Each structure stands twice: as structure tokens, then as C-alpha cells.
Structure prediction request, 936 residues.
Amino acid sequence: MQVEKLVYLLDFVIIFNMINFSKKIRLNGMKKSLAIIIILLSFLSAMILNGCGDQSTSISFPKSELPVILFQGFNIPQFPTAKGQLNYAKSGFPNPEEKKAAFNVLFHIFPEAKTECGNAALYIAYMNLGYDYRFANRKNYTNAIKAYHDVINNFKKYPQITVKAYWYLGWIYCDLLQDKEKGISYYWRIVENYPDIKTGISSPVPWVSLVYPMTIKGSPPPKDKTKNQWAGLALLEIIRHASDKTEVYNAFDILWKTYQKSIPTGLAIKSLLQNITTAQKALPYIEPYLALNIANIYLAREIKDNAKEY
Amino acid sequence: MRLKENFNTFCHSFQIRVFLALTLIIVIVIPGTGYFCYLQARKVAVAQMQQYALGTAAQISKRVESFLSQHTYNVKLIKSFFENQLINHDDDKQILPYFHLIQKDHPEFVNINFGDETGRFLMAPAQIPEVRKIFDPRVRPWYRGAIRTKGIYWTDVYLFASTQKPGMTVSVPIYDNLGAIKAVCGIDIDISSFSRFLRGIKIGKQGVAYIFENKQGRLIAHPSLVHLPWNSYHIDLLRTCLTNLKQKNKTFGMSTFQGDQFFTAYTDYPGNDWTVGVTLPVSDFLENVMAIKKAIITLVIAGIVLSSLLSYLLAMTIVSPLNILKKGIERISNGDLEYKVTIKDPDIASDLAGSFNQMASSLEMSTRELKRTYAELAQKEKLAAVGQMTASIAHEIKNPLGVILGSAQLVSNTNRPMEMREKAAVFIMDEVERLNKTLTTFLDFAKPASPNFQRINITDLLEEILVPSEVRFSEKGYRIDRDFPAMAPVVIADPDQIKDVFWNIFLNAIQSMPDGGTITIKLRIEKEEEVIDETITPIKGLIKNDPDYLAISFIDKGCGISEDQMQKILDPFVSFRDKGIGLGLSIVSQIVKSHKGKVKINSTPGKGTQFKLLLPFVLQENKHAS
Prediction:
């Protein structure tokens, strides 16, 4: 931009001097014409420099420029953070093997991120149950149980990982293998050893912060939003599955005492009311619980409807 | 002022004017045409851009509509399975395989949901167990929406926890045979396919198509959706562009964001309250127009350069015949009347040259004729002058001869007393002397002597006349005033002839005041322009590069000269006094002319006369006038 300004300035100086001194330097008409052509050309040069030098606006939208790692036969983008890598693995994949590879790559890229690696191990263990656990077979169960035990062994120092593994073991035994006693034993371990750890289920991430690198300025990190604890869920499952009334009452007492302001407590009351042998236990707690306004209208209505029978 | 004068001089050059006229036409016409073409190209490009952008937005809307219609149809199909009892909605084991089969054919179905009024819930694929244990479908928006609308219901866009992708759920209530709602069926649709679709639409180099949902102003589809941060320049830019257009009630227009300009077009997708937009930087779109602009500028420059050179040559062609004519005029001015101009151009220039040559020939003939006539006239004038002079001589000689004859007769008569005869002899001698004097005057006029030029001091020369005259005429009541400059003026002249001139004029002044009076004599140096008047042609060239004259004025306060007398006062043999022969002032005029000078006479009858002699002035000597 400076060059054409200089050319313009030079032109004005030349014109001024030419007019002022033309008489003295005695240029004839043709020489003046040539001088005008030269000035014209220099003006045009400046015009070209000025006119053709427009800078275009650049609004390059961020593109996926993540490096890709070939892992277990799949090209997997390598995220700058373990959290991002885990979120990517959690997203939908048409091929479950690719999803498993996406989880496994975490151990390879971020071995020091124990929490994310533990979560990845939990997901891999869950994947042993197949596309839909309702259609799983015994082999799937066995593999899953083994995998969850491995998680417990490998991440002993990470209670938020081990608690989830215990809960899933309890769930597999109670709901899938119908081994209530064994499953309940796992639930009691949670109640005894991990009373305060929240579930962190489905941790909904903020809008459009899907699989992008967390380092991008202005992007809020995903936050786990839940009020439920694994122990509360475990107590609910004990109440639902235990055949021993004392054990059920004991579980409910703990649930009421510790996790009164939670959905599992309301569901536990509903569960007690649905069984004639345990309904009396629930009755004194109905009013106080409904007064907490935690239950949704349907749960509240069902509790009330069930209570009417007693 | 000086710059303005120089500018005028510069611009008044004929060649410059011809050149500038041609060049200005070129400089105005060519860039004007180029600029007009550029504007037209830009206008067409903007119109095309508008058409393309709006067309693209409409195309995306149709695609969205088609996509959503397809899933509306799908959910209706599932509903019909239940309502026509092809699937028993009380049997989970029957429902799930159907759901899995449907999902296998439709990978965009993230989840297929089924919930009833008891809180029973089925989903394919399975929900994670810790969620399933506490999940109640009846509180979910897709369930409540379907119950409320009793028909097809689309949720807002939200993020699916299972896939971490944006989507919507389309749901529909399932009725029993009695027309009561038994359950609600829903499909979670992954709308990231919109973003994939938008990624495939190329809009310039940096243009983007996108979809905003208007309730919360969230971006739901964008080619780089998964890479966009929560708050960023890009989202703000798109939102600002749309807001600007909506405020102006326009569907296409230009917006400015942080100093950059962008074109935006949009169309509303009313059913879901979405806006489908297309935005691209003006510079991106103008890239092609800029290419046209560059091409036009290049062509304009090339055109101007070539045309300037051509106009230079053309100016030369126009001016060169004029130069040839100029040279011809100069030659003819210098007396070469036989010079002929040759111009070969077969047009008006050649005609001009022909006319010029014809004019030169006519001029030559006229000059020849004029010379001949002048010679004849001179001859006639000469004869007339001789006749006039002869008559004057005869007249002047006749009287003295009569006196001489009478006196001679008296001398020869011895009867006369001696005293009388001696007196007659004296008369004879006086008249002979008078005759001699008269004839000398005639000779001076008829055959003037060649001036003997020498440097003379005019003051000294004047004093030679004035000093004795002052003594002689002071007794008769005359006074002489001298108005001489301090520096003595020097001229190159013949002192005797100039003295005669002074004496003649001085005597005329004396004679114009018979009762005495003051005669003022002034010496002044006058510039050429002061001397020039229309009636007198200045005589220059005695000494080159000396434009000054010495003016010697004799001013009297006598009777003056009338206008009629003034016309003839310098003619020979014209005298307005009884005793004059009328040659004094003629001789004065003749001498002054031979000195390349001039005579100017100003007179007012009854008030006086000023005789001014103008002699070419040479220099001043560093000497005071005496």
C-alpha cells in the first residue's frame, strides 16, 4: 500500500515541476505529450497496485484437523485430551469393533488418565453383553463379569470406577443371571464401601460441544449432572430383589436415612407398596417423601394409589 | 499566480491541446466503458448470488422437509403395526425384535422408544441399566407431546446421551380399539446427517449453509457443527447476519460483522420453527468479479497505453503539416516569396498547402506589381517635386533678378549721381548674396549631405546655439529655460546637421512669439513604449539592443499651429509666413529620419507648440551637463 502512495506523490511532484518549469526547460509539445504519457502510466500503475490488491475476508471455519491413529485396524482421530478421546468413543459407531477400538486407544494414548481409562474399561466390559443385553447369552455374561472384575482389580484406587463395576456385577447377577443372592452381595459392598459416589449417568454435555477438542477457547467442558448415588441405586435394587424382609427393611432404612431426597427412595416406597408383605413398612414414609416434591406426578400418583389399598 | 500563468502557457500549446483532447477522450471512454462493464458484471453476479443462495436455502429446506416427512411416515408405520395388532404391545419379547429389525434398516434411528401409561418402557437398543432402573417415559417431552397433541409430535433438538449427537424424537400416540391412548411410540432421529448433507454443498470457497432453531437460537446443523465451540466468532457471525436480515424483513442481503461483509440468504422452515441460512463472505463471492475487474483494468491499461501512443503519433501527424506551413510562413516573411510548401497528405492538409502556395504566388505577384507602381509613383513624385522646386526657384530668383536688373541699369546710367549708383551697387551685391543663400538652401534640400555620424554630447551642442542666441534675443524680450538631466546624454549623429535642426526649430519658436516669451528646452530619456504611437513607425536598429530614445523638446507659448497647418507643416515648400520658402521643417524631418529618429509635434492654437525630437540614445557619460 505504501508503494502506490509513493507513486502518487511522485506523480504530483512531476506534474507540479513540469508545469512550473516547462517555460524554463523549454519542452516542445511532443516532449510534453511524452511526459504526460509517462505520468499517465505511473498513475495507472498505482491504480493497479491499489485496485487489484484487495484482500479477501477470511472466515475459515474450524475443520477437523486431528491427527489420525491406526489402531486395531481402524483410523481413530487422536484428541488432545483424554476426556475428548473418551467422548469420541462414547459417540455412535455403526461397527461395535470400531467403538471398542476407540475405547482401547485411550490406554494407548493416555495411559496416565486413569479416570478416563477406567471409564473406557467399564464401557468395554459392558460391550461384552453384546448389542442388546436383553439378547445376551451366558458367554456374554461370563465375559462381562470377568471384564468387570478386571476393572475392579485394575482401578482399585479409583472408587468412581470400581463402584460402577460392582453395581454392574450386581445388576448382571440379579437381572440377567437371576442369581439374586450374589448380586445383592455386590450391592451391599457398594452401600458399605462407596456410600457417597454419584452415578454420573449419561452426563449430558452442553449443546454442540460434541466431539471437539476441549482446548478450543470458549467451549465449556462437559459436566456430570446427577443427584443419584451408586449406593442409593444399589439399595433400591436390594429392596427390589431381596426375598428376606429384614434385609429389605434394613436396606430401606438406610435408603431413607441417607438418600431420602432421591428418586430411588420414591421408587423403593413404590416397590414396598407393591408387595403386600412389605407395604406396611412403606406407609409411614409416604407422606414425608411426597412432601419433598421429588417424585414426578406419575410416581406420586402410583404411590398414592398403591397406598390406598392399605 | 506564477504557477497559474505557467499552467496556462503549458496548456495553450497547440500540440498539447491536440494530444490532450485525444488522450482525454481515450482516458474517459475506455475506463468508463470498463467501469460500466465491471458494474454490470457485479450486478449480474449479485443477482446470480441471490438466486443461488436463496435456491440453496430452499433446496435445504426441501431436503429437511423430505427427511422429516420420511420419519413421520416411519413412526406412523410403527404405530399402525401396534394398532393393527401386528405387534402385541403387551409383549416385550415381541416388540424388541421388531424394533431391532426396523433399526437395522434405518441406521439414522438412534433409538426406537415405546412407553405406556403404567411407566413401562422399551427401547432399542437397550438403555444403560443404571438409567433404565429409574427411567420414567411419561415425563419425557416426546411422550407428553404426543399425548398432548394426540398426533405426530416432534420434540425440540436435543443431545442424545447414548451417542452424544444432536437429534430429535418424533412420537405418535397408539390408540386401542376403543380410541383410548394406550402407549406412545417414538423414534430418536440423528440430525447430524443434516450437517453431513450441508458439508456436501459447496457455496463458494468459504460459504456455509446452516440451520438455526429459533426457540433458543441454537445452531442445529452446520458443516463443521461438531468442531464449533460453544461461543465463537463463527456462530455469532451467522446469528448476526440472520438477525440483520430479519430486522429488515429481507430474505437476502449484505451484513457487516466485525468489519467484514457477508452475503446471507435464508428461508424459514415454519413447522419446526427453524431457519435455513446460507452465508458467504462478499470477498469470496467477489473473487470472480475481482478477476473480471483485474482483466478489465489490464485491458484498460493496455488500451490507454496503446491509444496514448497512437494519439501521440496522430498529434504528430496533425501538427506536422502545420509545422511545414509555419516554416513556409517564416521563409516568406524573410522575403523568399518563391518558396513553395510541399505536403503529400491527400486531404485537407494538402489543400491547405495548395492554398498557402497560391497565397504565396498572389503575394509575390502583388509585391512585384506594388514595386512597379511604387517606382512609377516615385518617378511622378520626383517630376512633380522638380516642377514645384523649379517654380519655387523661379519665384525666388525672379524678384532679386528684377532688383538686380533695376540696380544694374542705375549703375550703368552715368547721368545718375555717384552716390545713387554706389547704393544701387550695394543692392546688387545684397540680392546676389540672397540668391546664393536661397540656392544653397535648395541644394541642401534637393541633395542632402550624407550624415557624418559621431558621438556627440547633445547638451554641448545645444549650448553652442543657445548661448549666443540668449545674448541676441534677450533684449527683445525672449528667455530660455533649460531642463537638462544631470548626466550628459550622448547620441551618435552628425553634429552639423543636428545643429541645423536645433537652429530651425529654435527660430520657429522665436518667430511664433513676435512679442517675446519663454522657450523651454527639455532633455529626457524615453523608453521605446513611451515613444510608440500609432501614427509613427519607430525607427530602430541603429544600435541594436538599445530601446531608449533621447527626447529633445522645444516648447514655446506662441500662436500655435492649427490642425490644417499641422497636416502640411513638414511638407516642402509649404510656409505659413510671408518670408519663408517652406523648407526649414522639411529639412529637419529629413535629417531626423536620416538619423533613425522621429519628430513629434504637439500644438494648441493660441497656447503654444512642443517640438519633440527623438534620437536613438546610446549611453550617458559620467559627466555633468555644463
Summary: The radius of gyration of chain A is 37 Å. Residues 52-56, 202-224 of chain A have pLDDT under 50 and may be disordered. The beta strands of chain A are 68-71, 74-77.
